């Protein structure tokens, strides 16, 4: 069985392969839909990582001519969890030997003490959650592979529920959002079946990629000023209570 951490790493590897394959097929088509995230066509913004210069579509196509595996087209995720543009870079020696891009080289985890890059997320409660509008409150982002067995159970969020209760008892405003690859119907079902301690943000794998998180569950606690206070991976979130102050 694939471990939770390995699953997300494989997801990142697959994501890189999918975009590289699309770049190669662009030689035959002037436009190509790659997924719900977007397309690579003549209107797509593509940049060279080394120079920062924009790459014309024709040059981009030539870089992948004949099925060349020298380059990777790395999707850049915006605050809505959508692909806004692509950055092309050469693959590392290790990636060439592996035969695929490792996007963990491109998406770095946020640093504690730094302002978290902005987000706008759509919850399974039909509400929109914006990091800018949530300033002044603590924000807890938890990242989950899936909200169904075998990846999620009644005990999965037990400590998180306890942490939310601690914050409530201290009269501390804490907004808890659970980013997941589950579909919207699965998010609705989980809200009804489990005591989650968070509002599910379904179909949000791009936010996992954006923040460079490869382990489920992971937790990001953002302070009222928007700075990242702590990052916990594959462990209980209860130690985060020490950061919750009125």
From TrEMBL:
Keywords: Signal. InterPro entries: Thioredoxin-like_sf. Residues 1-20 form the signal peptide. This is Thioredoxin domain-containing protein. It comes from Salmonirosea aquatica.
